[in-house]
Amino acid sequence: MEISEKNLNQVSDNLLSFLRDELGDTKVDYEVRPSRIQGGNETYVFHFKLKNVHPSLSEPLVLRIFRKGFRPKHAIMESVVHNSLVDQGLPVPYVHYSCIDQKYLGEQFMIMDFLPGAMLHLVFGPDTYMVLGKMHAALHNVKPDQLNKNMITEGFGGRQYSIEGKFDLLLKAIERFPWLKEIVVWLIENRPSECENPSICHGDFHEGNLLAKDGKVTAILDWSQCRIGDPVMDVAATLVLQKAAFKHIVPSYDSNRASQIYLQSYRQEKELNDQYLEYFQLFRYANALMAAAYGSWFWTQPPILNELINNVYDISKIHVIIPE
Fold first, then answer.
1. Partners of 35 in the beta sheet?
2. pLDDT digits over 198-230, tens only?
3. I need a labelling partner for 268 at 20 to 30 A (CA). Which of 6, 28, 86, 174 fits?
């Protein structure tokens, strides 16, 4: 679904139908009709405001529509993550509704609070990566027990929501893309022992997914890849974005400086086991290559794809050759 002015009106009308059905009140209406918010590579995001509703729904809201490719109940899973973390005091939008019925908007979606703020670098400038490291460590210092309990209660426990699920996807991918096999075998043979103190792992923790205002982080966004696991895995995922992707998207991006400050700031708040940092970076590179194989526009950009291939070799000495 591509959002044009024409089907934006349809989205607005169908969303209002959902809310009236859900609330059982035909008087529910817009004070501000939905408008597109920039951002969201895998989702469509809109800002809107309601009237004639309970005060809890009268503040600005966000509609997040998931594109095709997510698991059938992903919106419900992500709402469990959001609301569990809100209960633990983290700056995460509270989700009021999650819907997996495609009759309204064609895809599953969530309706959540709008949290004010600007991109991290616009507020903190040169201190952005220091704040990023501090906030990431703060997340990893939050005990995962309540989130784990809530996930299991709602039916989202098990392999697919752990690192095992990531391995399952890689093993499935090599059936179609055999050139990935050598990397996956390396990852299995060199896999570290189970983490004794797992953390809540965001999976895509970077400055574009944090908002800030008046010198304070106001929101951590995009929990689609959230898992409970080794915090080193989560740190490695951030480093991969810095080292392999962002420097090719933003010409002025100094990846070495960003990574150095981020890691230094993180270590001031939480101990980091460097022994497995390279392993989990390779794990993230493998998942990025898998995404590229399936056609991800982000990871298939030639400079980024070449960076992935070169970095895989630097860690494992494996030459990745992608067939034409």
1. 47
2. 999 999 999 999 999 999 999 999 999 999 999
3. 86
Mean pLDDT, rounded, of the chain: 94
3-state secondary structure of 304: helix
Dist CA 237 CA 139 (whole Å): 15
- Phi/psi region, residue 211 (left: phi>0; alpha: psi -120 to 50; beta: rest), is beta
For domain 118-316, say whether CATH 3.20.20.70 is its number. no
CA–CA gap between residue 87 and residue 142 (Å, rounded): 12
78-133 pLDDT, tens per residue? 999 999 999 999 999 999 999 999 999 999 999 999 999 999 999 999 999 999 99
pLDDT grade for 35, boundaries at 50, 70 and 90: very high
- What is the distance between the alpha carbons of residues 137 and 131, in angstroms, rounded to a whole number? 10
Residue 228, strand partner residues: 200
Question: What is residue 66's three-state secondary structure?
Answer: strand
> Would you state the CATH architecture of domain 5-113?
2-Layer Sandwich (3.30)
> Up-side HSE of residue 294: CA atoms within 13 Å toward CB?
13
The CA–CA distances, whole Å, from 3 to 17, 45, 46 equal: 19, 10, 11
Phi/psi of residue 104, each to 5°? -85, -55
Contact 218, 211 (CB under 8 A): yes
Token pair of 126, please? 């040169």
Question: Residue 111 contacts by C-beta under 8 Å, 6 or more apart in sequence?
Answer: 19, 61, 62, 63, 64, 95, 96, 97, 98
**Roughly what angle, to the nearest 10 degrees, separates helices 128-140 and 231-240?**
160
pTM listed for this prediction = 0.94
Q: Would you list the domain boundaries of the chain?
A: 5-113, 118-316
Task: Please tell me if the domain spanning 5-113 has the same topology as the one spanning 118-316.
Answer: no
How many DSSP H helices and E strands does the chain contain? 12, 10
Close Cβ partners of 297 (under 8 Å, ≥ 6 residues apart):
41
